[in-house]
């Protein structure tokens, strides 16, 4: 295993670049096994004067780390990182939902169904029932209006 190999090599400290998402599993494994890992933002390593190529990236990071020229990036504790991941995923899903609702509204407008004049939320119970009725072939406005919730007042 990676952690056993690093223990066998008797590394004192570890530094890794945080590019993309590839570093996350390695970082978590090392952190889980008690290693002190310095997570470095790629911008900081590139801003240090000197030559750096993709081929010598690891050697360059090691050299900078041995001189103490790398600044550690903030990385929250594992439980906080998990919570942040959930919140970010929720935010993404909400953004996707908004996009789909906008597509629905646009499609209704293109079909000359001016829903926004009489339904404030097309994804609410009333909006969905009316849309399902339209998809089912209903075109009579009186029957469509009957699908509204009793507490719902048409605009």
Topology, element by element:
Layout: H1 2-8, E1 14-17, H2 23-32, E2 37-40, H3 42-47, H4 57-66, H5 78-110, H6 125-135, H7 141-145
Parallel strand pairs: 1-2
Summarize the structure.
With 155 residues, this protein is mainly α. The protein contains seven helices and two strands; from the N terminus they run H-E-H-E-H-H-H-H-H.
Give the rounded overall mean pLDDT.
Answer: 83
Largest sheet: 2 strands, parallel
State the low-pLDDT regions, or none: none
Series of H and E elements? HEHEHHHHH
State the total count of DSSP E strands.
2
C-alpha geometry: elongated
Amount of helix: 40-55%
How far do the termini sit from each other? 65 Å
Tell me the fraction of residues in β-strands, as a range.
5-15%
- The helix-and-strand class reads mainly alpha
Strand order of the largest sheet: 1-2
Number of helices: 7
Word description of this protein:
It is built from seven helices and two strands; from the N terminus they run αβαβααααα. It has 155 residues and is mainly alpha-helical. It folds into two domains: 2-66, no CATH class; 93-145, no CATH class. The protein has a two-stranded parallel ribbon. The protein is elongated, with a radius of gyration of 28 Å.
């Amino acid at each position: 295993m990676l952690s056993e190999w690093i223990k066998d090599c008797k590394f004192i400290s570890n530094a890794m670049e945080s590019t993309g998402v590839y570093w996350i599993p390695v970082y978590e494994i090392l952190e889980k096994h008690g290693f002190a890992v310095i997570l470095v933002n790629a911008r900081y390593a590139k801003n240090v004067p000197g030559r750096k190529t993709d081929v010598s990236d690891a050697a360059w990071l090691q050299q900078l780390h041995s001189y103490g020229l790398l600044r550690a990036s903030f990385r929250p504790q594992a439980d906080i990182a998990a919570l942040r991941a959930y919140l970010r995923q929720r935010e993404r899903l909400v953004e996707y939902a908004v996009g789909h609702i906008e597509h629905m509204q646009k499609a209704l407008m293109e079909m000359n169904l001016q829903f926004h004049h009489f339904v404030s939320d097309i994804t609410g119970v009333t909006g969905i029932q009316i849309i399902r009725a339209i998809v089912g072939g209903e075109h009579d406005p009186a029957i469509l209006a009957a699908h509204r919730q009793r507490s719902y007042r048409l605009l």
